[in-house]
Write the structure tokens for this entry.
Amino acid sequence: MMYVCYLCCDKVTLESVDKLRFHLLRHKDNHELELPIRCKQGNCMSTYTTVFNLIRHINTHHALMSTVSKHQPSSCDDSEGNGASNTFSLRCMDFDDVIDEQEGEASSIQDFETEAVSLVAGLRANSSVPYGVVPAVVDSFSSMTASMISVVKSEVSRCLRDKQIDCSVVSQVTEDIQTRLVECAKPLTMLSTRKKQDNFFDKHPLTVAPVPLYFAPRLESHGGSSSYVYDSFQYVSVKKTVNSLLQNKSYVEAVLQDKCSPDILQDWCDGAKCREHPLFGDSGKFSIKLQLFYDDMGVTNPLRSHGSIHNVGVFYYTVKNLPPEFNSCFANVHLLALCYSHDLSVHGFQCVLDAFVSEIKELSSNGFTGEFPILGDTTVYVSLCQVTCDNLALNKMFGFIESFSGSFFCTACYATSEQIQVDYYEECFQRRTVDTYNKDIAGLETARRQGKNHCRGVKSVCKLNEIDGFHVVDNWSLDIMHIVLEGVVAVELGCILHGLCEDTGLTLEKVNKSIHLLWGKITVDKTHKPAEITRLQEPGYSIVPSMKAVQYWALLKYLPLAVGSDVPSDNKHWQFLLHLSMLTDLIFSPRFTHGMVLFMKEVIAEHLSLFVDLYSSEQIRLRPKHHLMVHFPSIVLKSGPLIGMSCMRYELKNSFFKRSAHIVCNFTNICRTLAYRHQQHALHCLLSGSHIRNVVSVAAHTLVMANSVPFCDVLVCRFGIAPTDIIGVADKMSVASVQYSKGHFLILCRDDLGDPLFGRIINFVCLSDSGKWLVAVEHVETAAFVAEFHAFNIAFVEPATFSVHCITEFADHHPLYCHKIFGNKSTRHMLRLPYHIF
């Protein structure tokens, strides 16, 4: 029985699964492993993202190397990369060292040690595993290994005796086995204690360890004596992190992807701010663009006494050079600093930002030089392009007032609490500029003499202004997660549902039941099910209970489909709900044209006017978050789509720290502990390829002849295969965290009138010569856009027509759920888009 490596194909055949695993790990050592990892045993076309999953699949289905046509699925690794099964090499050695296939015993022992080290590395990267447990696991592993060697000796001795071998020979053989396997008896001796593990992994060339930096000293008294105490925070070097990332070839390839389209705004690089920037506007320099984020995070149970004592301030950043779909990955959200929230309130942001600004000023002017894959010997420049936070954190970091109940709360303009009730266009407000900001700073002393702590909303100077090309009044960033989903949508859905229950026969029980029934059938957004609404408050207040941002979004998207048949389409509250759906679709669009920006500007103004007409009273007024929406059009023109500034990816990152803090349960210096654990996880992600999320993975598939599928003609015409050729057909496929299934719908393109054209997934198909998985879809007809449901009505046509596409060829990557609405005489098939797509 021989096994084939998918990279070497017929050049190398291996006689056991273990040798195949070692062989693939050698490819990984030399940075030669290409994702997805293909099976290639016989005609099998399964693809996986880790060596572990592939080997498990081979052990299950190819151990006897029998020709089979049906392959069962294997579960994939955790998308966060926390599983200990996600193996990789952590040997501190020259990565250009190529181990010869016939090296023999020494190579086998080295492979054994590599797998043992991978086990420890995976455990340390897992946020759910205390580091104190790892030495116990290592000790158990070593004991099992020693026991296994004893079993091997006994079995060899018994076999030799059964063959009538002389006792002296048997004794000599067992002694030789003992001598040869002595190195395998304790493969993790160098990792037997926590200190040894720390030293081992800290020496890895790609490790970026956090370093403690200090705030200003303060005087404390204990036991009758006084002494100075230095509060510290953990800082992770931007230069070292970027340098480590650029050592990965796949990461460099992703950074160099150029998807710019004329007159299309789809990322920060397409906005006017990038062209005007002194560094990023220079095409002759290879520059890295950073988006900075800050937020407060609770790491303990907030219901317990003193629950906020250990609250932590987290500073993250992402690299905006990466395609947008990559930056939603945990591995691509990098840690900058961790500090106690209390220390920030006492000492301010000055010390933390001092370290960051000092490093960025050096990196933006001089950069750093190194040898990188693809790039070669290159100087890399790094600078800050944007800061994104929730409204309170943004004002706090920028030195603006933190109260939103009065005037001058906006970091973009001088809006007052009264003006925002009547003006709905940005031009109606005086824009903040660098000159007016400097005048406000100069007027602070006068304002304080008058008993005020700010001058027109400005409380202090922000250290970030020292970075060339950046200023707090020229940031052009607002967070749509907190402003729209947790702000505007939450409040307005409460108003709408209250109005519908008063004006129509709709009840709260009916709404909850309809949502529950819909989620029983829905095949997308299953994990975003809204919470059951327990109470509707008076207009102007959010629905109860409060929900997560994705739950509010899901409720808004599917509420028209769930209860649209029970509500008169001309009801004013229902019409306002549909207008809110249209506005949200525009705001969350991943791509804009200049015409779309102008249209969104009018829709925002119209929506604010409608809200005032429907619900405004002495108690119900437009909130500051309503006003912030008037700046969205200008922000898109300057900085690209608003979804690129959403805090959602950063908020999700907090789960790693919260889970780690819960597991560690040691708060002597929780910032140091969490920062160190995160950097160990970052190393694991870098070496295991978790940064790249465009890998197609398919496990269960059937091998059939091409003429047995209904789309055979398309395969023959487009790909030139014969009808009798063998192809792989599957019902499920995953790309990163997105799961596609047979029966889902995808947007193919738009027709001449601008209406989307949809296709229903029939199968996922793989041609034997290419090894790439494609999507076969059946075309459906777009009948009309049904405004009362805010969805497209589709119709199935006869005879059916098919097409086959790569997953990247579709207009949008999100799968769609087809909801059936039953009428008296017909059934309508409705598709709800996640946002505006063109």
